[in-house]
Write a structure and sequence with these properties.
10 helices; 41% helix; alpha/beta; single chain; TIM Barrel; eight-stranded parallel beta barrel
């Protein structure tokens, strides 16, 4: 079971929009230095459906090669194409990913039984623990009670709740080896305090050490320290909620010297400057 801060890793790109694999390797090393627990590679946070499967596969291969077992690597299988899901699952098996993530598909699946069969087929293809994600904001075939059925399915290792609302399931009803993760910026700290195993976080792209320290403080029962760490993170969380896309994250990483600027610096859609985000980063005591 992976615990702690799981980073929805951004994909650095060249000027033409293609992945920059060398900078990816640099980011992997940076997250190792900052003690992140795991990285989600080719994530939907980067609009993975727009990337070619060969690019996603190479991102995964490079990340696993660079990590060399020092940090967990999770392949984000999520795609509108079921064919691409299975192709990427096979790559995760070939390269030795620690786990795979699959968000509940929004494309039509005719019945709940068919959906569960789909998950089983993905597990068979990946041969890695499957982490299932859902936010319950769109009509689908999974309701919170169905998590109990999924939790007892062989090969399911975790569930990411992207919803702001807590799951209506008692932890004692779930298998001990199943990990629950919060994928919602606004409610992540509350979820940790309620016993979740970790956070799936875009904030950790910018503040990896701080998010990991928060997870560790909650796990060890250091309530006062956890409250202080969470207070430091909140301005950054709010700033990213105001701009819910990858652009501000890339801008921040450029300002922090983690990735090169390139010919076209990122531009936020609704603001003419980055003063709010800059203040939030400084409030989190992150050098910029």
């Amino acid at each position: 079971m992976i615990k702690g801060s799981i980073v929805e890793l951004i994909t650095p790109t060249h000027r033409d929009g293609s992945p920059d694999y060398e900078i990816l390797e640099t980011l992997v090393e940076w997250h190792i230095d900052n003690s992140s627990s795991a990285l989600i590679v080719a994530s939907a946070v980067n609009q993975s459906s727009a990337m070619h499967i060969d690019e996603r596969t190479e991102l995964l291969r490079r990340a696993i090669w660079q990590s060399d077992g020092r940090i967990g690597v999770i392949a984000d299988l999520s795609s509108e194409s079921h064919e691409q899901v299975f192709e990427f699952a096979a790559a995760a098996d070939e390269f030795g990913a620690n786990a795979v993530l699959l968000r509940n598909p929004t494309s039509p699946i005719q019945s709940q039984d068919a959906l569960f069969d789909y998950f089983r087929a993905v597990i068979d293809s990946a041969k890695r623990p499957l982490i299932i994600g859902d936010d319950f904001t769109h009509p689908n075939l999974i309701s919170p009670p169905d998590i109990l059925t999924l939790a007892n399915m062989s090969g399911v290792g975790g569930f990411v709740n992207y919803s702001k609302q807590p799951l209506q399931i008692a932890h004692q009803e779930l298998p001990a080896e199943l990990a629950l993760y919060s994928g919602n910026l606004a409610s992540a700290y509350q979820s940790l305090c309620e016993g979740y195993s970790g956070i799936v976080s875009i904030v950790a792209n910018i503040a990896p050490a701080l998010v990991q320290k928060l997870c560790s403080a909650v796990e060890t029962g250091e309530t006062a320290r956890a409250d202080l760490l969470n207070a430091r993170l909140q301005p950054l969380v709010q700033a990213l909620l105001d701009e819910p896309n990858v652009i501000p994250i890339k801008w921040a990483l450029i300002e922090m010297g983690c990735i090169p600027e390139g010919i076209h610096p990122p531009v936020l859609a609704h603001t003419h400057d980055y003063s709010n985000l800059r203040r939030a980063i400084r409030a989190a005591h992150i050098p910029i």
